[in-house]
Amino acid sequence: MKKAxxxxxxxxxxxxLFSLFNTAFAAAKIPDNPSIRKQAPNxxxxxxxxxxxxxxxxxxxxxxxxxxxxxxxxxxMRFNNVWSHPQCTPSRVSLMTGQYPYRNGWxxxxxxxxxxxxYFDWNKNQSxxxxxxxxxxxxxxxxxxxxxxxxxxxxxxxxHGFDDYAMWTGYETGNPxxxxxxxxxxxxxxxxxxxxxxxxxxxIFSDFLLNFIDQNKGQPWFxxxxxxxxxxxxxxxxxxxxxxxxxxxxxxMVEYADLLxxxxxxxxxxxxxxxxxIIVWTTDNGTNRGLVxxxxxxxxxxxxxxTTENGINSPFIVNGPGLVPSGVVTEALVDFTDxxxxxxxxxxxxxPQDYKLDGxxxxxxxxxxxxxxxxxxxxxxxxxxxxxVSEQGIENRYTxxxxxxxxxxxxxxxxxxxxxxxxxxxxxxxxxxxKVNLLHSKDPKVIAAKEALxxxxxxxxxxxxxxxxxxxxxxxxxxxxxxxxxxxxx
Length: 490
Fold this sequence. Notes:
Helix content is 28%, strand content 19%. The strands form five sheets. An eight-stranded mixed sheet has the order 4-3-7-1-8-11-2-12, with helices on both faces. It has 13 helices and 18 strands. The chain has a domain of 338 residues: Alkaline Phosphatase, subunit A, CATH 3.40.720. It starts with a helix and ends in a 32-residue tail after the last helix.
């Protein structure tokens, strides 16, 4: 009898342990959706160019309607505190590498096809696409690139990890046709570079991506759509070919970006791919500074190149039916270095262990397994054309570039070298225009926040890196040497 009781007790204990283990496992896995048990989710990453929240109605923009972005946000997650960098190159290299500009060296904006010299070197830098490809994903890119010159490196996209691509390289010095990115666009593919007469660039890019997805839907895929819209030059669009004026064209360009999102959603549904696809929609920096938009009753000027919130706090929406919780608005802190580790996490892989990442995955937040990101602060820096060319290559103007760091309420502005002091502390909840300097406040709460942000700054390297790349044969359009290496810097 005692032996039977002992056996029963052991069985009950084992069942309880198994139940506890099963509950813990269920809490940690991707939501139970039959379509994703066979493979990791597909990822469609859309990056608009030069577009702030004041032109997205999901965020309260009042001068425009973006119904498809609004629907994407309502059916997924809308983030309020995602930082890009203030300009194109730092943002794009940061998201590709998972590193801050002070580490990867791309602190400043640099048009490789226009100025020569430096380029995004696949041997010196990690690539989001290579990480995804190594995880078994089919990888594709379309849109703006600008950090390699395809005349010199025609297979650069493949070397960065993309299986296929259709890219506007950026303006190539000496090649006027290459300036066109919208109507009659000059696009580089595996067949070479060519003008596409009578066509609109974004239609080519979106069709190219969707065709690739259709051909690779038997395996997980990663699609990077770096759209040109709504970056200048202001232009007409296929849906509004007669629109006139800077503001009229800008609105039409934003509307067309919204329509392209609807095109992707509709086609993915037709293919049967929507249920296992996570869409991430964001922008590389704020709007052109010549434009003013009304958001939630405030007039906001475009903040491109600025480290104020209108320059770096990007619209950021994540949506995935059955994967991503719907109707969520989050104050979680995220910055662009977090994208590589997050996408890797969703792909059930990671960057190589010997690679230094600054970013932290927020995949658990996206999948509804966490209510917040892991971050207590985020960073933004860089932009403008603060560079010169030495005999060693391009070098950043400052040994230590100005930057901003924030928590969920307070934001600290840090000066560039040689001062490298603290310039301003603002309360982002109480002071939307970032005008009131609390740096010398006696409020204990403010002091505590300031000290925590200063501590975060103190962990950063004392000196920013310059871009890392292997030197190649000189080009006719290379920027000339103008300074002695390093000694010219502030």
